[in-house]
Amino acid sequence: MSNARHMLGSMQSIDAPMQRYAENDAIDYVIAGVGAAGGVLLQRLARAGFRVVGLEAGPFWDTERQWVSDEAGSHQLYWEDPRVTGGTDPLALGANNSGKGVGGGSVHWAAFTPRLHPSDFEVYTRDGVGVDWPLTYDELRPYYELLELEMPVSGPAYYPWGHPHGYPYGPHPMGGVGNALIRGCSALDIPVSIGGPVAILAGSHGDRPHCIYRGFCIQGCKVGAKASTLITHVPDAIDNGAEIRDRSMVFRVALGADGRVTGVHYFDEDGREHVQRAKAVIVCGYAIETPRLLLNSSCAGFESGLANSSGTLGRYLMAQAGNLILGRFDELVRMYKAPPAHALTEEFYETDPRNDFARGFAIQTVGPLPIAFGKQMMAAKKAWGWGLRREMMDYNHWAAFGLLGEILPWSDNRVTLSETDTDRFGLPVAHVAFNLHDNDRRLIKAGKEKTLEVMWAAGAREVVQEARYAHLVGGARMGNDPATSVVDKFGRTHDVPNLFVCDGSVLPTQGSANPGLTIQALAARTADYLISCGASIFTGDARDMTTPPVRTSLSPPATWGKGVPRLT
Amino acid sequence: MSRRADDGPRTHPAGHVLPPREQPGYYRGFSTLAQQHAWDEHTREVVLGRVATVPPIRFFDDAAARFWTLVFDHLLPQSDRTSERRIPIVNVVDARLYEDRTPGYRFAEMPTDRDAYHLGHEAIDDEARTRYGADFGELEYEQRENVLAAIHDGEPRAAAAVWKQMSVHRFWQLIVGDAIDAYYAHPWAWDEIGFGGPAYPRAYTRLERGDPEPWEVREQRYAWSAPPGARSDETENVHAFSVESEQHRSHAKKAHDE
């Protein structure tokens, strides 16, 4: 961090000096990755009085000096270190789903924050597919409610799907894409949620301003209106004594002779190796880097990866179907205005026995900026040359909807270590294999066709689509059975009592909801568990499976006494 | 094949090739750069830097730089722009390759981006020689369009050894994607398509009905045609596929059907 005032958004700043711990000082917790989950954990643990350090591979952003309102200038926000992507249906990575820097993916998400439905926690019991979660919706629900206030979330006062609920901040005004979705859905008698749920401020909140509808949400919200843990939780973490060491790439979790981890090895910006000792380690690297780190930490007793006695580490990786449906209208849309995320329908979310597939999908607004739109025209219309120039001149006539379809967890969708490619530190990079299965293909086809139908019903003169994927979860899934999962329902690895995983990789299934809210809710729950366990995590092997009380006293300032009453 | 099922208001049967203009597109007089006073300082620095500075060629050798300049003139043609208002592409791609900036992944069926450019150069020249008996750079405009259209369609006749090492479809997406990255990052391209550009801290205020901000302009459409012999002023509208791995097959299938 430079000497100048460190700005987070246009109004918020970090003014106090940050705590600095010595590397040989055995702190309580070291967190590898300060993203959506790591940011929440760091804040909770610091508030509860633990000595905690977050190591983050990317920079600690000063948003005023480092972020831009510009597509081409925002690549630094994405994980663009090398990876290999394969399988029968390879996933685009990088900007599509991988963040880097403090705040991680929550810096470049579109900030849609639907909850999972109660059915998501028991898809095996209900439909005989995937796997049940080791916890229920009701166990996670208080954390959904808490994080919706902490972010906070704007949306309708009554949200009808899953477990019906309301949102604490008012819905956003409609942009052209939202209006098209409302028009299309209404023509087909499909209910639609207007103005959210999205973690973007419809009014000012604490030291954060309201949204200015500039449309660069996934290039990082320079305004400070869109929630990211960089601005919602990290400042409070630092105020409460947490340290963040940025540009610090953890590459190995160290295991002691007693079967407990002793800290982590990391490279600083200049490639110098360091070791941070800690009484417990929490890996928060997301669905690809978490498995990669644990695979790279293999050692005597864990030859195929640390905490991988089950052989499931890296497996059951999931992306969601993200087919993009584009409609061209005679009238102007100008979809670059308003947040990309501002209206959706979950009417097709649940399993419908009339379908030839299990589970379902959502349809959401999207607002691609010119470069993204150009590549969509390349894919959806095979446009190049003069045809591309012509389509692009019609940019302002197009609206875009995103299908968000559930893809089930499959053992062969997995992260392994590349045998050929290494990164700048000489470490094997992640190889990601992704393969669609029959249920996935049928679901995607039906979801695509329904989304096309809605776009036509909205009045589009031409409708095209690009097939793609969105989000990532899984790879270190949670479960009750140590033989088929990596962590228990609190994120503690089955194999190593003081090693935890907390991020999107622990999700056993994913529903058709954007994962960001669920990831942060799980992090707050894991924090409550760690706080309840206290020092026993650092010394004993006992595995207390008691659900901890929900601590509402650990929320960041300005959480309470705001918003509107919820209708639930 | 009809060029598109629904031409809507976009083209006029009597459309003709227009002489080069300073600013093509339907938003005459609109300038995002004229709004730079309303941008934040760092955004202004980055965008103005992009306009002012064309990076030098460092990755491509002279022959490769000439070759790729010619290829990009087809992938993202600019002959409707006056020479002083053309947007640099090959230099921007060269800078990415020189600095080895990648999107953060490599498809398993692809070599590195650097190698893909070397191999692609070889394959396109081979295709040109197979079809017309001369390197790509020696061909007439229409012949060059045909060579590139063969790659676009996923149906090259030559360079089997190269295409064993990389997917035709992924290679095509790589080079057209790079052209898009360079062209549509430029404020002159934003003016052309009526994109409002950076809006922090000022904000957008007219979110509905496609209404322009007070500082934006209304659309003023006109008809135009691509130059004679252009193959690229054709687009498809294919819905049959549902998943990404099938998306590239549609074109090959169409060609067989015809």
Polypeptide structure, described:
The complex is a heterodimer of chains A (568) and B (258). Chain A has helices spanning 36-47, 63-66, 105-108, 123-127, 137-150, 176-187, 229-232, 234-239, 286-296, 370-381, 385-393, 438-457, 516-533, 536-539, and strands at residues 6-8, 12-14, 27-32, 52-55, 84-86, 193-194, 243-245, 249-255, 261-267, 273-283, 318-321, 324-328, 343-345, 361-366, 398-405, 414-422, 428-433, 462-466, 469-473, 499-501. With 568 residues, chain A is of the alpha/beta class. Chain A has a single domain, classed as FAD/NAD(P)-binding domain (3-Layer(bba) Sandwich), CATH 3.50.50.60. In chain A, helix 6 (176-187) crosses helix 12. With 258 residues, chain B is mainly α. Chain B has one domain. In chain B, 42% of the residues lie in helices and 1% in strands. Chain B is built from 10 helices and 1 strand. Strand 5 of chain A pairs parallel with strand 1 of chain B.
Oligomeric state, counting identical vs distinct chains: heterodimer
* Structural class by sheet pairing and helices of chain B: mainly alpha
How many domains of chain A? The number is: 1
Q: What is the SS-derived class of chain A?
A: alpha/beta
Label the CATH architecture of chain A: 3-Layer(bba) Sandwich
- Class of chain A in CATH? Alpha Beta
Distance between the termini of chain A: 44 Å
Number of strands of chain B: 1
Reported for the largest beta sheet of chain B, the result is:
none
What are the segments of chain B in which pLDDT stays under 50 over at least 5 consecutive residues?
1-15
**What sequence of helices (H) and strands (E) makes up the elements of chain B?**
HHHEHHHHHHH
Radius of gyration of chain A: 22 Å
